């Protein structure tokens, strides 16, 4: 996993604009270190803010992104949210899991401030527990369905589901939704196996797969890197040639790296994700532009912070206000909100999550290819 040094954190602090009354402040208490760091959005947010500020800002105001490391600790994230709120933040981001997002949203509610989480897919956030929440993507049942539809198109019948409670519904229920769609399409769930984040030895699960005595066409898992890469390698070494299918947790450059010596290892890997991230996508172009500016945005998840900043900037421009409640209502009532990762999103019908297409990414010769990109019509409805 990537680590962010103390020196790098200091650079972030030095690069931030000075506090001023004429700034639009967005507070990000996000994982800059630890296992979840590759999935944090701060680099993309910082880059998009610099792009907008270089063009004069919004309505004469500069965007200031307040960034501090929460690690994976909920209490730290809550404390940082309180700090940013006291400094005048009009929107927050935090650790993208419901056990943190919910208490942070509850703290923010007293200030009229919302959370805009550009990569949270967990269904818990759309259950009405809090109403000051936006996510720039669609929930996990949509990604599960998009992946299952492609699997069925490949002739997949027999699947194994790997689940974990450690990532909330993202890792526990997304595989089950995948299985539901496969079974509705005539397939069969052979087994459901448990796993833990940080697994480096998948031999117990692999032994259970081999003990099934049936051909496995696909294994589905919603997990994080580098665990997924290790699973793929160990499955292939054990002679299991099933498709390895997953969700947005696969969308990290370190997955692509396992095909450096043997691109064929990725031939039967695909995943549904947050936004197109193949070579000619808007995300890849944005990452290249940031690199020219001297800002390293290492993959899709870090890039998604650009959507937060762009959406907030649009709401300020449209409403002529920096009042947090006004910004939230502006976002919620808009037919179309321009963002970086896709042309536009909308919350008008869904209220808390973005309506947008779900891309499925595969590999050819070790390189990403866009397989499909649509809103699935057969998404399970048992989550809302």
Automatic annotation (TrEMBL):
Query: What are the transmembrane regions?
Result: none
> How far does the signal peptide extend, from start to end residue?
1-20
**Name listed for the protein in its UniProt record:** ABC transporter substrate-binding protein
Q: Which GO terms describe its biological process?
A: amino acid transport
Q: Which family does it belong to?
A: Belongs to the leucine-binding protein family.
Which residue ranges does the record assign to the Leucine-binding protein domain? Answer: 23-352
Which keywords does this Swiss-Prot/TrEMBL entry list? Amino-acid transport, Signal, Transport
- List, alphabetically, the InterPro entries matched: BCAA_transport (IPR051010), Leu-bd (IPR028081), Peripla_BP_I (IPR028082)
Organism of this sequence? Ruegeria pomeroyi
